[in-house]
Amino acid sequence: MNKLIHNRLSIAAIIAVVALAISIPAVSFSQGEGDRSKAAVAAKNSKPKGLKGDRGPLALPTGVTLRGVFALGGQAAAAGTLIRQPISFGFTLAAEPVPHYIKFGDVVPAGCTGTPEAPGAASGHLCIFEAGSPNSATGGFSNPVTGVPNTTSTTFGAAVSARSTAAGPFGIRGSWAVTG
Predict the structure, then answer these.
(1) Which helix (H) or strand (E) holds 154?
(2) Which site in 18, 31, 91, 150 is 20 to 30 Å from 166, CA atoms measured?
(3) What are the sequence ranges of the domains in the chain?
(4) Contact at 8 Å (CB) between 169 and 97?
(5) CA atoms within 13 A of residue 92's CA, in its CB half-sphere
């Protein structure tokens, strides 16, 4: 029997099995709650300030700007058909931002900066820039929870809306920026 085991196992195979047996407890310990390695401590301490993670909604730090785009369209049976699309910030703001809807070609109001290609917003403002609105007389914003048009947004999003001027395809497209 000894000769059979000796012929089947090389020294390298025995060393590999012993190394594996030693490494399994070390790996499972480093994955557990008691991990105090330098890498684990550095990863834990590297979370951006202002983010809550698993303990609740992610809070957008003051002065940080988020940007996004929107495009919505539909087929109107007649003039006055309304469509809406939500904008989700992905973060929760400390307070509801002051919303602004800037029609293409309009003067950019105080609290907003930039263009549809490079939108900007001052702290506490949501700036929605229209880049185009085929067959749409009015573009605007609304509260996505209540649906009330031209009211403040929520701390976590808003909705963009358009109303057709005639039957046929219609819509709006553009960009937005919000700053915590």
Answers:
(1) none
(2) 150
(3) 2-46, 65-179
(4) no
(5) 9
